[in-house]
Amino acid sequence: MLGRLNFSTQKKIIIIAFVAIPVLLLLTFAYYPALELVRLSFTNWDGMSPTSDYIGWDNYKEVFSNPEIFGVFKNNFAYFAVGIVQNIVAIYFAVILNGKLRGRNFFRLMLFLPYILNGVAVAYLFSYVFDTTQGSLNFLIGHLGFASDTSWLGNESMINYTLASIGFWRFMGFNMVVYLAALQAIPSDIYEAAAIDGAGGWKSFLHITLPNLYKIIELNLFLTVTGALEVFDLPYIVTKGGPAGASETFVMKIVETAFQFNDYGLASAMSVVLLAFVVVLLSIQRYLLNRGGQD
């Protein structure tokens, strides 16, 4: 049938067909569920009943007025703070391993390996590392002559930073590889010209390296912010939100509300609030970074 059509018409049909399939999949598995999530957030659906009642903004009022729900956002801050440090360390290693260092490929591999490990396995591994009585970390600290009875997973003030350090260990190598790829795209002639003009390593970093990494830094900060707000696996596996809810994150609260208390309407409202937070924070981040880039 296509053979009877001219080349221009055939081309248009093929393009439309190739575009229509991914658009249909996107609408089916992304936009429709998102719209359904918003609709459910205005109901009291329990997840099983064939019907649900419209209750207006009650679920959203519950999210913002209940400190047990909205208050868990403070536990996510540790992941954001450690994520910022993680990006700084990743840039540091990327700059070092981009130079003429002997064995640099080996060090790149060793730093990247944690990223390919299964997240559940990593969580279980570090649950033994941070164990108070038989953990390898306290064992090492004790042999160095320091107090070795620190409760890394039982202290409410440090539990989130302890868990965030696991993410630091796992994802720093990935960020380093991303920065390393960006560094290798910078022409070496620029550094040679800067060296001839008398620019040292620090000035070259500030005026050549950082400006060329700007977009990559923006991308990794995007991943850092979203990852900090949506963290779930580490605290769920290692601490189950303990002690006394000190390590419970907002996503854990959503899952608990939906599957333990069967309040899918409230859980949907919490999901919409989380999505709105991500959009707002990323918009602020993009505005500040673009403003800084123009300056």
UniProtKB/TrEMBL annotation:
Database matches in PANTHER family: ABC TRANSPORTER PERMEASE PROTEIN, DIACETYLCHITOBIOSE UPTAKE SYSTEM PERMEASE PROTEIN NGCF
Its membrane topology: Multi-pass membrane protein
InterPro entries to which the protein is assigned, alphabetical: ABC_transporter_permease, MetI-like, MetI-like_sf
A Gene Ontology cellular-component term: plasma membrane
Gene3D superfamilies: MetI-like
Family: Belongs to the binding-protein-dependent transport system permease family.
GO biological process, one term: transmembrane transport
Name recorded for this polypeptide: Multiple sugar transport system permease protein
CDD domains for the chain: TM_PBP2 (cd06261)
Record localization: Cell membrane
Residue ranges crossing the lipid bilayer per the database entry: 12-32, 77-97, 109-130, 161-182, 264-284
